[in-house]
Structures are given as structure tokens and as C-alpha cells.
Amino acid sequence: MRVINIAAAQMGPIQRADSRAAVVMRMIALLDEAKRKGADLIIYPELALTTFFPRWYMEDQAEVDTWFEKTMPNEAVQPLFDRAAQHGIAMYLGYAELTPDGHHYNTAVLTDRNSTIIGKYRKVHLPGHDEFEPARSHQHLEKRYFEPGDLGFPVWRNLGGIIGMAICNDRRWPETYRVMGLQDVELVLIGYNTPSVNSLKSAEGLQQRLLHNRLSAQAGAYQNSCWVVAVAKAGVEDGHHLIGGSLIVNPDGEIVAEAATEGDEVLVVPCDLDATRFGKQTIFDFARHRRVEHYGLITSRTGAVPPD
Ligand code: CDT
């Protein structure tokens, strides 16, 4: 058995007026609870330090940049890194990254037990739009504020396992998991902020969005025989509702823990990475069963093209 005690640290809403320092205090409280429950690794949501600012239309780039972190850790976040190192807990932390040469990414970092950053992922699949769209019930301006990630889907050895990262909308795309599956990934970590309503389809509500969240994580876990941990920022943020439903899924695609609230809540589950081996050596033994000669369209074509 190779057990990692995983803490899915769901966060309740962060309001636009909340300071980084106040948010970090909440994150440290979740970290302390995770420690009491024996966690080795804690996963926080996407953009965990701020409100989900892409719902706001902004034209002033200086204002936009106030939502981004220029260094990681920085002064506001250092207490979280310090406490994690003190507890010996590794971390997945999502935040908005502004690089020294002016690039903007929706990013997550992975730390080891000493709070040393050992991995960085930049969100590849950016949903939404890049201009104000009055027909929508709310804006989702990720395409305006972020560039698509430029790092691909790497995996890292950490805590005795092989760990990969994705961010929110990435979880809906099978390619996300498969590229990591082809690197023998055992544990995929995902943070998310998902509005409970579809801004263009009022009939799609909370229950359907929770269903899609489960479907995506369960399919990714099963089809790649890996653990998937998906962690929400939830509840009513600046008047806009985000789904909760943080969950931990085993390599058989079964949900082993799911958040019960839309607030700050920690789920801790012992996850045996050796449980990934059976599926990887049988039905999803990629080396024996995949037929890449038939998969060319996956990388040669982006949009669907109907037959003549
Ligand atoms: N943050 C994020 O990626 N949210 C999207 C909302 C999709 S609707 C534009 C998601 O896939 O959950």
C-alpha cells in the first residue's frame, strides 16, 4: 500500500472586498484542520486567494493586475507556506499569475512537504469570452484576462506518487486526463469555480452542474485508473452562486467523499496509490490496448467537421 492522506479543502465564497490576508487566515484554519485529520497533501480551489474576478468586466489593465500575484509565495501568502512546512503538508494552490515579462495565467502550484514549489501548471482550457456580452446573466471573461497555459500537462513525483494538476474547465476534457494518464499519473488534482447557472441557458441549474462535475471527474478517474480530487470555491460570491460538490474519486470511478456544504470544509481520505495499478495493468493497459493509428484527428483537428 502507498497511502496519501488527501485533504480536499473546499472554500466558501470570497467577496470582492476580502483581503488576501483574511483569505490566507481561512486557508490556514483549513490547513490546521487537515493536519488534525492526518493529511499529507491539501488541495485548495482555483483562484483560491481572491473572488472569481473574471465575472467582472474591466478595461483598466492596472485594475485587472491587482487580482494577480507577481511572485509566489509573496508577503500575503507566506504565512500559508510557513504553516504548511511546519505541518509537513504538501499543497496544490490555485492563483492568478502575472509573470515578470507581463504574461497572465490561471495557475496552480504544487509544493512538497517543505513548502518548496516543485511543480507549476497553467490552465490550458479557458472558458467564456473576451468582450462584455450583455445577453449573459453574468460575465465569464477568462479569455480576456488569461492566456492559455504554455506548460502542457506535466506530472511530478511527490509524496511517493505520480501527481498531475488541472484547473476547473480542464476537467471537462478527456484529453486533460489522458495526457497525464500517458505519463502513468496516479493522482490528478483540480481546483474549480463553477457558476451554478449557465449564463446562456437558464434551464441548466445547480443539479445539472453538479452532475457534470461528478461525470467529468468520475470518467477521468476510471478511464485512466487514477485518483481524482476536485475542489470547489462555493456559495454566493459577490451575489453570484458557485456550485460546491468537492469530491474525491477512486481509480474505479467511485466517489469516496463529497462535500456536504457550500462553505469552508475539509474532506480527508486515505488514498492508496497502489489501487491505480489494477486498472492500469488490465482494461486500461494503454501499451497493450490503445490504437494510436486511429487517433490522429485528436491532435490534427480542433473543431468538429461533419462528413460531406
Ligand atoms: N472556472 C471555470 O473554468 N469555470 C467553468 C465555467 C464554465 S461556463 C463559462 C467550468 O468549466 O466550470
Give short descriptive properties of this protein.
alpha/beta; Nitrilase/N-carbamoyl-D-aminoacid amidohydrolase; six-stranded mixed sheet; globular; 308 residues; 14 strands; binds 4-methylsulfanyl-2-ureido-butyric acid
Polypeptide structure, described:
With 308 residues, the protein is an alpha/beta fold. It has one domain (3-300): Nitrilase/N-carbamoyl-D-aminoacid amidohydrolase (4-Layer Sandwich). The chain is 25% helix and 25% strand. The strands form three sheets. It has a six-stranded mixed beta sheet. The protein has a six-stranded mixed beta sheet with strand order 6-7-8-9-12-13, covered by helices on one side. Strands 10-11 form a two-stranded antiparallel sheet. Strand 8 (187-192), helix 6 (206-224) and strand 9 (227-232) form a beta-alpha-beta unit. It is globular. The termini are far apart. The site of 4-methylsulfanyl-2-ureido-butyric acid (CDT) has 10 residues, from loops. The site of 4-methylsulfanyl-2-ureido-butyric acid has 10 residues, from loops.
Kindly state the number of beta strands: 14
| Low-pLDDT residue spans | none
Q: What separation lies between the terminal Cα atoms?
A: 53 Å
Strand content: 25-35%
Biggest sheet layout: 6 strands, mixed
Q: How is the CATH topology named?
A: Nitrilase/N-carbamoyl-D-aminoacid amidohydrolase
Work out the helicity level: 25-40%
What does the radius of gyration come to? Answer: 19 Å
CATH hierarchy: architecture? 4-Layer Sandwich
Structural class, please? alpha/beta
Q: What is the mean pLDDT?
A: 97
Tally of individual domains? 1
SSE string, helix = H, strand = E? EHEHHEEEHEEHEHEEEEEEHHH
- Total helical elements: 9
The CATH H-level superfamily is Carbon-nitrogen hydrolase
What ligand species are in this complex?
4-methylsulfanyl-2-ureido-butyric acid
- Give the overall form: globular
CATH class: Alpha Beta
Widest sheet: strand ordering: 5-4-3-2-1-14
GO molecular function, one term: hydrolase activity
Organism: Bradyrhizobium denitrificans
Protein name: N-carbamoyl-D-amino-acid hydrolase
Domain CN hydrolase: 4-275
